[in-house]
Design a protein that fits this description.
It is a single chain. The chain is α+β, with helices and mostly antiparallel strands and 200 residues long. The chain has one domain (53-192). 32% of the residues lie in helices and 18% in strands. The chain contains 5 helices and 6 strands, in the order H-H-E-E-H-E-H-H-E-E-E. The protein has a 6-stranded mixed sheet with strand order 1-2-3-4-5-6. Strand 4 and strand 5 form a beta hairpin. The radius of gyration is 28 Å and the shape is elongated.
């Protein structure tokens, strides 16, 4: 049992320590996974508002769409987010998709905007927007019926609502107005939360 030759042939009872290169490789691997997970967590989409995309824009007029089946409550949360951002000098720039609506205004590049929300991307096509702005009667009528919500900012005045779009220079004839007033009016508590946006 105590034969030195037998002990030399038997496997070592203790574990061999890991080589320094293996330790470094494992450290790099674990750190990489931690960085990837952290980046995914920090860049996760905001689920408190529906995802949206800008279909077309002409100056101050912005046509956006949300997925079909989006509820009025979800659209309301999106409009409240636009309201919060519209009060900031460059707030709407955080969407990365809405081009400056007042590029030469020293008060900010987004001081006037008329933003429409649809639940069908076909209503946001550039050709349809061109006909809408040209005043084509049937296009205007159909767009007003199809719009799910709107946000309007004119300098210090803002308005947002669910339902038909407001007539130029006026307010919506139907639907539900969510807010109307000046940007200096205090926001309700629920609008004070996160101010990020998650476009598609």
């Amino acid at each position: 049992m105590n034969d030195p030759a037998a002990q030399a042939l038997s496997p070592a009872s203790g574990k061999k320590p890991l080589d320094i290169v293996v330790k470094l490789a494992l450290g790099v691997l674990i750190s990489s996974f931690a960085l990837i997970w952290g980046g995914m967590y920090l860049s996760r989409p905001d689920r408190s508002i529906p995802p949206f995309s800008v279909g077309s824009q002409s100056g101050e007029i912005v046509m956006t769409h949300v997925p079909g089946g989006t509820t009025d409550q979800q659209i309301e949360s999106l409009l409240q987010r636009f309201r919060k951002l519209g009060r900031q000098k460059e707030g709407l720039a955080t969407t990365k998709k809405i081009q400056p609506t007042t590029p030469g205004d020293p008060a900010g590049r987004y001081r006037r905007v008329m933003l429409y929300v649809f639940d069908d991307a076909d209503w946001t096509e550039p050709e349809l927007l061109a006909r809408f702005l040209a005043g084509d009667a049937s296009t205007v009528r159909n767009v007003e019926r199809a719009v799910r919500g709107y946000y309007r900012l004119q300098g210090q005045n803002e308005e947002g609502g669910i339902g038909p779009a407001p007539k130029p220079g006026g307010s919506a004839d139907q639907g539900r107005i969510l807010f109307r007033g000046r940007v200096t009016d205090p926001l309700p508590d629920e609008a004070e939360a996160d101010t990020s946006l998650s476009p598609l």
